[in-house]
Amino acid sequence: MSAKPMDPKHIIAARVARELHDGDVVNLGIGLPTLVPNHLPPDIRITLQSENGFLGLAPLEGDPVPGLVNAGGQPCGMQAGGVFFDSAMSFVLIRGGHVDVTVLGALQVDQQGNLANWMVPGKMVPGMGGAMDLVTGARHVIVAMEHCTKDGGAKILKQCNLPLTAKSRVNKIVTELAVFRIDPGHGGLVLEELQAGISLDQVRRCTEAEFRISPDCQL
Amino acid sequence: MSAKPMDPKHIIAARVARELHDGDVVNLGIGLPTLVPNHLPPDIRITLQSENGFLGLAPLEGDPVPGLVNAGGQPCGMQAGGVFFDSAMSFVLIRGGHVDVTVLGALQVDQQGNLANWMVPGKMVPGMGGAMDLVTGARHVIVAMEHCTKDGGAKILKQCNLPLTAKSRVNKIVTELAVFRIDPGHGGLVLEELQAGISLDQVRRCTEAEFRISPDCQL
Amino acid sequence: MDKIIGINEVVQHFKDGMTVLYGGFMGVGTPAGLVKCLLDSGACKLTLVGNDTAFPDTGVGPLIVKKRVGKLVTSHIGTNPETGRQMIAGELEVELVPQGSLAERVRCGGAGLGGVLTPTGVGTIVEEGKTKLCFDGKEYLVERPIRGDIALIKARKADRSGNLVYERAARNFNPLMALAADLVVVEADELVDVGELDPECIVTPGVVVHKIVVTGGL
Amino acid sequence: MDKIIGINEVVQHFKDGMTVLYGGFMGVGTPAGLVKCLLDSGACKLTLVGNDTAFPDTGVGPLIVKKRVGKLVTSHIGTNPETGRQMIAGELEVELVPQGSLAERVRCGGAGLGGVLTPTGVGTIVEEGKTKLCFDGKEYLVERPIRGDIALIKARKADRSGNLVYERAARNFNPLMALAADLVVVEADELVDVGELDPECIVTPGVVVHKIVVTGGL
Fold first, then answer.
1. N or C, fewer C-beta in 10 Å, chain C?
2. Which run of H or E residues covers position D64?
3. Transmembrane stretches, by residue range (chains C, D) (predicted)?
4. For the structural domain made of D7-113+145-214, what CATH number should be given?
């Protein structure tokens, strides 16, 4: 439960946590997004949906329980009031708008709200798993990722060139540098917030996409 | 459990019972078809599917049990090993070919295997309920009905003129006079059997449809 | 976020012209208390979506008899003569849908699907006005989703978070309707604490349920 | 009609080139005994349909590693590097399907439906070769049914008639696969008498199950 303030992953997770509301049903992608619940204030209680077939995902406490695993296949726990169901029902909930928020990583995201996070042709093809349905169906899609690639390349682009996960579905991008929203319909990225100690200039240098600056953004 | 041998309904039900095999999953329409289980020999055990959402329909024994009703809304019983499910699952089973046999009544049936049993325009429009799905999805469709209308009119026609329940899906017609099969694809009604004491002539007089006579038919 | 409300608080959610999904089969599994409340609200020109109109004095039957319904989407009306009378007199618009297609259409509404392809109804008047597709020589009708403004659900037990279990064949359309409406109101025989229902046996997850009225003792 | 068989009787049902549906998610809920039996049978050129290929040594992973699979229909292969290697080397045909669409396609296969209309995949390479329909300004892909020659199912408990319950998240694709194959073979941890399972909690009805292998004590 310890948040290391200097770790970009925790900065991102902590900021994503502030996007969630009490009572939200949330699906968290593998990796960084799973850190989000650690940063929730005690008055915000969310229900985690796990696409392998249940509601009420919780951290593992004690020994693994047979059959109780998260969508990565790792042993986990379950909240009181949790429910198990089959994969069809799991995606009825996801596609049908019963999941309020999905938080996932990205290889690329662009100013039209397009997301690419499931393959690099000829190189890495893990498959889309549940990501396409989640991004298509969840009411609110938050991309949570480090702002640049390991090599310092831009990931927030004018236009994705990797195969898309879904078209025009991303609502928000949270990185260790900034928070953007994407105006649905209007296309176009809006800078909402700079992370603590980050300058507009830094963000501009690391972002290929064009963006407007929200009047509410404190520069 | 008493079979009145002279009642056409029981003659029909008894003959339909001989079409069923041990282990069959069967859906029985309202009325005459519900008499069929009374005529099953003890070595033939079937499972009744009830389209309102369960398998293992059985006659009511003792007091009505809350929520346990047949598709007519009447209190019934349940076999050991029965299962409840929702209406979507009920019709997954029906449409998906998991019901071996459906037995239902008809207003009209024709030599192409077309069935009309759900409305008389401007007069009687009860709705199709589950009949269209049953006739479309069950592996074997048996029409069980009295051979003629109350007025003595033909019900086994060259071509139905009432709105259809389903096209070319009837496999067998059992009446108090005769048993016909319908050759799928070939179109065409085949007389398989005369009921006890019935002449070919009687059947011809009461049947508008053209039919061939099976070589196995004992005249 | 307490979902438990009194029956008197339900009435505010009913409005003229709204689309009401209801569970039940011949009235079994239809929430009688919520139907009475809808009747008492005076709301009219309703669109009702459910399996049947039960009998004149059970299920949604009284809503038909008292002429609160402008349109009905259903599979069977034979047990409520008033439904047929109003339909033939042109007082009530009735769309008859094969029961399995009705179940799938409501399921699609709750599942974010744009429809299903079914062989049911091909070659019958049910085809009328519908897109038809042919694959591998077999014809299918495209049956489109149905959603409602409100769903009226009858459950055997609810926990405080809205997880539901049903009672035998009273389950029928209830779990489907509970996924396909903007507001889901449940009438439960019994309320239990969160954690009391077996997670393997819960049919409707509480996250889709908005309001619960308990008719048995609290 | 006894459905209970020994594990040695399963092997006769495996044939080269058959389509095998399997339950499981990252191997959890995949019947390890049946997979081993399929491996021992030597059957090859199989078409496998399931959520993922787990890890090289779990779930259906070993079938991939030992090159028994000619075609794979799945949503995720990232955890089994051998799957990706064979795919990129052109040794294995892989059709990647969004997980929700895979679930619906198998459901359609078991439900007698000709397909579903889903918004998932619109505007992506998943569109390729698929019929696209537009309703009310929204685009959908027609996702077509999948059926198998055999389904390999893992259950927590089976009764002698084949009614099944599962174990927590090991349920996943199992109930869908159990509806969509010509022969449904179940590996159950435990066998109970007919009537012992709660009719409200049974997930897969026995009428769709053909063979049961019990791995726990009888």
1. C
2. helix D61-65
3. none
4. 3.40.1080.10
What are the domain boundaries of chain C? 7-113+145-214
| CB-based contact A83 C205, cutoff 8 Å | yes
pLDDT confidence tier of residue D160, bands split at 50, 70 and 90: very high
CA atoms of B93 and D179, how far apart (whole Å): 8
CATH fold of the domain at B8-44+90-213: Glutaconate Coenzyme A-transferase (3.40.1080)
Give the single-character DSSP code of B148. B
Q: Is the pTM of this model over 0.95?
A: yes
HSE of A56 in the Cβ direction (CA atoms, 13 Å)? 23
Give the 3-state DSSP-derived string for A138-158, with helices as H, strands as E and coil as C. Answer: CCEEEEECCCECCCCCECEEC
Main-chain phi, psi angles of B75, to 5 degrees: -55, 140
Give every residue of chain B whose pLDDT is below 70, as ranges.
1-6, 184-185, 187
Rounded-to-5 percentages of helix, strand, coil across chain A: 20, 30, 55
Stretch 45-74 of chain B: residues touching chain C, C-beta under 8 Å: 50-54, 65-69, 71-73
**pLDDT given at position B186:** 72
C26 SS3 class = coil
CA dist D211 and D205 (Å) reads 13
% of chain A exceeding 70 in pLDDT: 96
Segment D15-30 mean pLDDT:
98
Query: What does the H/E/C string look like for B116-135?
Result: ECCCECCCECCCCCCHHHHH
Smallest Cβ–Cβ distance between D112 and the set B22, B23, B95 belongs to: B95
| All structural domains of chain B with their residue ranges | 8-44+90-213
